[in-house]
Structures are given as C-alpha cells and as structure tokens.
Amino acid sequence: METYLSNKKIESLKSFFKDKDCYLEIMKNLYKTRKGLYSIIEQRPDLKEKVYPQFQTLNNLIGTLLVDDTVEILELLRCSSKGSTS
Fold first, then answer.
1. Would you list the domain boundaries of the chain?
2. What is the mean pLDDT of each run of 10 residues along the chain (86 residues)?
3. Lower CB count within 10 Å: N or C terminus of the chain?
4. CB-based contacts of 27, cutoff 8 Å, min separation 6
C-alpha cells in the first residue's frame, strides 16, 4: 500500500507506540483533546466552523489508531473516563 509517509516516519510512529502503556497514554490524551474540542463546539457555536474540522480530523485519527482487541478498547475507554477531569 502506498502512503505519503516515508518509511522513516512509519518507523517513528512504531517507536512512539512502543508498548501497550504508551499506546493507552497517547490514546487517552487524544480522547481528552477530542472531548475538549467537543466542549468548545457546544459552548461556543460561533467557533464551530473553525473547530469542527479539527474535531473531525482527530476523531478519524483515533478511529485509525484503535486496536482490534475489544478488551484493550474497553481498557482505553475506562482509562480515558478516569482522567477526564485533568
């Protein structure tokens, strides 16, 4: 499959997600960021036109990065809801 990303960047992504704990931490932070963008959209409808494309892009990225393992997804959701106030 062709991709815009170079092999070097793909390897960099692999090392960024070097283990389950790193993956869960990164995903938890992406979920928090998505929640923050959604809050902005809800509280400031005048900014929706600017913020919604960011929300949509982040949502698509999260969807791409989700693992196929249902147990891990449930753990991710549990972790993201725990730290939703920070």
1. 19-82
2. 90 92 90 96 97 97 84 70 51
3. N
4. 62, 65, 66, 76, 80
